[in-house]
């Protein structure tokens, strides 16, 4: 009976140790899974110092949390702007580095929605969410000659569909100016 009790106590201790290890691991894992600043493989990153000089740029090789994928603590002390260029938006983060300690400045976080271009036959659709600006300037070029310019204003979505002359086959370029940025899309019909 005493052997069975010792075996039972050992079993309970082993289970208790396993449970406590699993629980502490679970808490540690939660600390590693923040949802902010998630980036995807293939996004483009650029890091600029306070003077606007690019100190790093390139494609992101792995999906995950920005702070875990890049070691910003190696930067010199100062304030940096990090831009993540995604498919339909540009996320802008500001960090401060002091004595190799990195702080994300949440109040300086911003997002710019990029215009979306679609072409089909001789039509081109240009659309942009207007959550960050209420206007965009559109310039259309055919073979480097300006053929149309327009400023589009709106509340929720800025969009236009342009029907181009089907007989003018060749190279076109759409230049969109919004949010103090220039977006260029080259296409052919």
Short description:
With 189 residues, the chain is of the alpha+beta class. It contains two helices and 15 strands.
What does this molecule look like?
- This protein is α+β, with helices and mostly antiparallel strands.
- The chain folds into three domains: 1-33; 38-111, Immunoglobulin-like; 114-188, Immunoglobulin-like (Sandwich).
- Helices cover 19% and strands 49% of the residues.
- The chain contains two helices and 15 strands.
- The protein has helices at 2-32, 66-69, and strands spanning 38-39, 44-48, 54-59, 64-65, 78-85, 89-98, 101-104, 110-113, 116-120, 123-129, 135-142, 145-153, 157-163, 171-178, 181-188.
- The protein is elongated.
- Mean pLDDT is 82; it is low at 5-35.
**What is the total tally of β strands?**
15
Tell me the distance between the termini.
89 Å
Number of spatially distinct domains:
3
Tell me the CATH topology of the largest domain: Immunoglobulin-like
Give the overall shape: elongated
| Quaternary organization | single chain
CATH class of the largest domain: Mainly Beta
Number of helices: 2
The SSE order reads HEEEEHEEEEEEEEEEE
Q: Roughly how much helix do the residues carry, as a percent range?
A: 10-25%
Strand content: over 45%
Overall structural class, as computed from helix and strand content, comes to: alpha+beta
What is the CATH architecture annotation of the largest domain? Sandwich
pLDDT averaged over residues: 82
In the predicted model, the low-confidence regions spanning at least 5 consecutive residues are 5-35
Radius of gyration: 26 Å
Question: Main β-sheet, in a few words?
Answer: 6 strands, antiparallel
């Amino acid at each position: 009976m005493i052997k069975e009790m010792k075996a039972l106590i050992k079993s309970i201790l082993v289970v208790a140790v396993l449970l406590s290890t699993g629980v502490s691991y679970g808490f540690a894992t939660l600390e590693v899974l923040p949802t902010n600043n998630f980036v995807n493989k293939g996004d483009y990153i650029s890091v600029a110092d306070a003077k606007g000089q690019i100190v790093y740029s390139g494609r992101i090789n792995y999906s995950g949390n920005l702070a875990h994928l890049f070691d910003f603590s190696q930067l010199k002390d100062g304030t940096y702007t990090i831009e993540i260029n995604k498919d339909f938006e540009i996320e802008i983060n500001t960090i401060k580095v002091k004595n190799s300690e990195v702080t994300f400045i949440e109040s300086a976080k911003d997002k710019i929605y990029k215009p979306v271009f679609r072409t089909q036959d001789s039509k081109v659709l240009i659309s942009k969410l207007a959550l960050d600006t209420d206007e965009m300037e559109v310039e259309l070029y055919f073979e480097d000659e300006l053929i149309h310019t327009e400023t589009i204003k709106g509340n929720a979505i800025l969009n236009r569909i342009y029907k181009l002359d089907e007989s003018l086959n060749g190279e076109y370029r759409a230049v969109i100016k919004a949010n103090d940025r220039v977006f260029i899309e080259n296409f052919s019909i």
